[in-house]
């Protein structure tokens, strides 16, 4: 038996070895349908605008493609995925044999990658001959990688490229295997039988973000501070990736999402490496090498180089990128051609653009998502009272009246002209005048759910002023009732409503004419109408809680 086993082993060694069949590489078609759902930066605080240069939001991208598979194992290439793709989140559905392995290319087609991929192979170098005034070409072989210098071997020997000071050009016969001008995601699959299939690639990608902005115009003013606003809201969506998504179904998700993964760190965008060539220093051993001088570069507001100066001469090095269109100084349009539709997504809100749009690479997209022509509310002036031991007495002749806080108050329901979720964002208010709409205030709006009371701060008013005082100074810790109040003045030519915040419900009891004061957000308050160009005093009583 041992002799037979030895003979079979020797015979097997003599037989030719047949290598395993390599997987056939096939390329999926360009996306036929694309859906892009953008999520806000989960770590952006209230009142913080999105970072246009380094967005920290993300998007879920779903692409439908066609692919023709051979029978057996094959590798499918998906070209043109987002450079911020988080490969570990990618899912491919619709394959008959499922997924064996997933890969993400780490090197884009670039000058350095082209040189490295052609190492040891022939290229054609074209030089300008200053004697004949003509260009001549010859074959050469690349002998070094593109990591500091490039050395070619020609018929004349070895030489460094672009160190002669004359124009030189390299021509490559083809693109090395594995390089692509666009980011590529690939998977290995095994199809029992070949055929053409429709597959869907879904993945998360970093480099996206969005925010809302509201533009309101005062349309009508009534008595006791009643006003009607026209309110238009915009979604500004940002794609910082180098890839565009044409005719995409675009959606944005509002609300604070719980995210524990670092999508930006997991994405690792593929690198397009430049070709950096270096030569021996120019100069002589006696005089030494000249110290290079790099003129200062001046950047614009977006970090784009504008110009450099050499000996006082201005040289333009780049054109200023025009600022993205902003809704801040625009009055609301009466009719919008396209408006995002609000939908429910669990405890979050989803805004769906009703028509396909193109999400441009390195670009902003603005879409209207709310257009309310009549939002009813009240313009109020707020005066907050805090009765410490240093509060002034009513018997004093001179009062130091301070400015009041102006704000717009309404309720987020259909009765007041709203009734939709309001995601956080900036808000700009205009007031009409004979010379057109004038800026009234610009503030920040927090997230408001449907049914909540909405308050929009509009800064301080110097025309409506107030101060608080007490009838007598009681000892600290006393629980006796004391008479307190506020003095208000109005320099406007029409009556105004002032809301006097009269203390904290948690620490004090307060009443007026025997009835408890109203409470909102934990504070007692009294609404007082102050006459035009007049003054008014309001009194109530309060005591410390036991």
Summarize the structure.
The protein is mainly β and 546 residues long.
Mean pLDDT: 79
**What percentage of amino acids are in beta strands?**
over 45%
Helix content: under 10%
Overall strand count: 33
**Morphology:** elongated
Q: What's the N-to-C terminus distance?
A: 103 Å
Structural class: mainly beta
Q: Which stretches are poorly predicted, pLDDT < 50 over at least 5 residues?
A: 7-20, 301-335
Counted by DSSP, the helix tally is: 3
Described by strand count, sense and barrel closure, the largest sheet is: 21 strands, mixed
Using only C-alpha atoms, the radius of gyration works out to 36 Å
Topology of this structure?
Layout: H1 2-14, E1 24-27, E2 33-39, E3 57-69, E4 72-79, E5 85-93, E6 101-104, H2 111-117, E7 122-129, E8 134-142, E9 151-154, E10 157-160, E11 168-171, E12 184-191, E13 195-221, E14 226-239, E15 245-254, H3 263-267, E16 297-299, E17 305-310, E18 313-316, E19 341-345, E20 348-352, E21 357-359, E22 363-384, E23 402-411, E24 425-431, E25 438-445, E26 453-470, E27 482-490, E28 496-504, E29 508-512, E30 515-516, E31 518-520, E32 523-530, E33 534-544
Parallel strand pairs: 1-4, 2-15, 13-24, 22-28
Antiparallel strand pairs: 2-3, 3-13, 4-12, 5-13, 6-12, 7-8, 7-11, 8-9, 9-10, 13-14, 14-22, 15-20, 15-21, 16-17, 17-18, 19-20, 22-23, 23-26, 24-25, 26-27, 27-33, 28-32, 29-30, 29-33, 31-32
């Amino acid at each position: 038996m041992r002799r037979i086993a030895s003979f079979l082993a020797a015979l097997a060694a003599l037989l030719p070895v047949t290598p395993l069949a390599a997987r056939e590489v096939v390329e999926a078609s360009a996306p036929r349908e694309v859906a892009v759902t953008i999520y806000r930066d989960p770590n952006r605080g209230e009142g913080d605008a999105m970072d246009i240069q380094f967005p920290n939001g993300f998007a879920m991208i779903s692409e439908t493609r066609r692919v023709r598979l051979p029978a057996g194992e094959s590798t499918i290439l998906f070209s043109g995925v987002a450079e911020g793709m988080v490969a570990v989140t990618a899912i491919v559905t619709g394959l008959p044999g499922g997924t064996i392995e997933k890969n993400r290319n780490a090197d884009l087609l670039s000058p350095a990658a082209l040189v490295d991929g052609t190492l040891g192979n022939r290229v054609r170098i074209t030089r300008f001959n200053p004697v004949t005034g003509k260009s001549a070409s010859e074959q050469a072989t690349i002998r070094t990688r593109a990591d500091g210098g490039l050395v070619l071997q020609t018929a004349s020997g070895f030489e460094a490229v672009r160190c002669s000071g004359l124009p030189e050009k390299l021509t490559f016969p083809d693109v090395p295997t594995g390089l692509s001008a666009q980011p590529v995601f690939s998977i290995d699959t095994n199809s029992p039988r070949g055929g053409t299939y429709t597959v869907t690639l879904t993945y998360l990608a970093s480099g996206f973000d969005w925010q809302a902005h509201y533009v309101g115009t005062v349309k009508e003013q009534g008595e006791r501070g009643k006003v009607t606003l026209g309110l238009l809201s915009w979604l500004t969506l940002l794609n910082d990736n180098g890839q565009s998504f044409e005719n995409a179904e675009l959606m944005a998700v509002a609300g604070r999402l719980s995210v524990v993964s670092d999508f930006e760190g997991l994405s690792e965008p593929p690198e397009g490496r430049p070709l950096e060539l270096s030569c021996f220093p120019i100069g002589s051993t006696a005089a030494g090498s000249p110290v290079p001088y790099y003129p200062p570069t001046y950047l614009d507001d977006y970090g784009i180089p504008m110009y450099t100066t050499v000996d006082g001469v201005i040289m333009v090095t780049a054109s200023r990128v025009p600022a993205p269109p902003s809704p801040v100084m625009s009055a609301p349009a009466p009719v919008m051609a396209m408006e995002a539709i609000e939908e429910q997504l669990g405890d979050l809100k989803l805004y769906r653009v009703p028509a396909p749009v193109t999400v441009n690479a390195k670009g902003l997209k603005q879409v209207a998502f709310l257009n309310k022509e009549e939002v009813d509310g009240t313009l109020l002036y707020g005066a907050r009272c805090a009765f410490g031991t240093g509060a002034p007495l009513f018997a004093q002749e001179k009062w130091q009246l301070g400015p009041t806080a102006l704000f717009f108050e309404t309720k987020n329901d259909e009765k007041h002209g709203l009734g939709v979720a309001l995601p956080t964002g900036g808000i700009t208010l205009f007031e009409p005048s004979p010379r057109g709409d004038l800026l009234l205030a610009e503030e920040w709006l927090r997230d408001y759910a449907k049914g909540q009371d909405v308050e929009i701060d509009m800064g301080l008013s110097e025309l409506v002023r107030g101060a608080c005082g007490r009838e007598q100074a009681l000892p600290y810790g006393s629980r006796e009732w004391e008479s307190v109040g506020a003095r208000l003045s109005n320099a406007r030519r029409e009556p105004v409503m002032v809301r006097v915040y009269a203390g904290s419900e948690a620490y004090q009891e307060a009443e007026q004419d025997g009835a408890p004061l109203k409470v909102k957000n934990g504070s007692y308050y009294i609404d007082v109408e102050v006459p035009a160009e007049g003054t008014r005093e309001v009194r109530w009583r309060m005591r410390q809680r036991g």
